[in-house]
Amino acid sequence: MGSRNVMSRLLVLSSVGFGGYLTGTYLERKRLTIASDYINTGKAAESFCSKPGLPIFGTVSAATPIPADSPSSAVANVSRVGQIMKYGFPGLDNVRSFDDYVLSYDRRTRVAHWVFEHLTPATVKHNDAVDRAKCDFKPDESIHPFFRSLNTDYKGSGFDRGHLAAAGNHRMEQKHCDQTFYLTNMAPQVGVGFNRDKWNDLERYVRKLTKQYPNVYCCTGPLYLPRREDDGKLYVKYQVIGSNNVAVPTHFYKVIVMETSDGKLEMESYVLPNQKIDNGTPITMFQVPPETVERAAGLLFFDKLARNKLAKINGKKV
């Protein structure tokens, strides 16, 4: 009898705890979008568009709400995510899906962990209906205001708002290009000699790959690499900009998988320092083994692919 009583009490306690969780979740969702800011008393907290998620498991959230009367939009978005992430997710921290690319956002640095794209000849082809000049840099309101970067963070910083998913990779529709201008897709980059030059050269190179390969998968992101100081010790140091302390990466990477028409796969990986680079330096000088990027980024790229099944890595037969 004693054991039965204990079990009954445990069941009651479990029911109460779960009921409390459901009630709390419901009340949290019903809260007003503008509430009192518990840090700066007396100020109204900025509203934000929260995204669906589970309390334990990593999820992919749509970065823009899907209208209830447009279920086909939801299906199309999920289908595109499946195409883009065909060979696996590098990580599952704050993953957000846009119409033509997927990213994982680092709320601490205010810069993405990684951004994933699937390029085809059709997505990069010139389209008169798509005009980059109509696009505006804008904060991503799917991110909580505490962790959001703003245009004012970049103003006067000396750094460009550098694209991770390049605008030129998304030319099928105007909205695809527009969405690459969310600040979640930006990182502070040195302008002359890097963002406007050598980094741009690498972006063009990736687009040119679609002339040879029908499918190109590209993962791009920041790195914060250690440097040896005068005392002989290694330190990870990076600048932050703006009132939101947006991190300035020391380096950037691209890991690319190219799919041939007969199903063979090739991989290339690059790491470039976030600094002015001599224009005469060939892109191949920045090729590194993929595992070097993985160790530095703390991510596993294309983990559904066995490396020994690749035809080439950085142009060399495996």
What does this structure look like?
This protein is α+β, with helices and mostly antiparallel strands. It is 25% helix and 21% strand. It has eight helices and 15 strands. It has helices spanning 2-30, 71-84, 121-124, 151-154, 174-179, 191-195, 198-208, 290-297; strands spanning 60-62, 95-97, 101-106, 111-119, 160-163, 186-189, 215-223, 227-228, 234-235, 240-241, 246-247, 251-259, 265-273, 312-313, 316-317. The strands form four sheets. It has a nine-stranded mixed β-sheet with strand order 1-2-3-4-7-12-13-14-15, sandwiched between helices. Strands 5-6 form a two-stranded antiparallel ribbon. The longest helix has 29 residues, at 2-30. The protein is globular and about 50 Å long.
Topology at a glance:
Blueprint: H1 2-30, E1 60-62, H2 71-84, E2 95-97, E3 101-106, E4 111-119, H3 121-124, H4 151-154, E5 160-163, H5 174-179, E6 186-189, H6 191-195, H7 198-208, E7 215-223, E8 227-228, E9 234-235, E10 240-241, E11 246-247, E12 251-259, E13 265-273, H8 290-297, E14 312-313, E15 316-317
Parallel strand pairs: 1-2, 13-14
Antiparallel strand pairs: 2-3, 3-4, 4-7, 5-6, 7-12, 8-9, 10-11, 12-13, 14-15
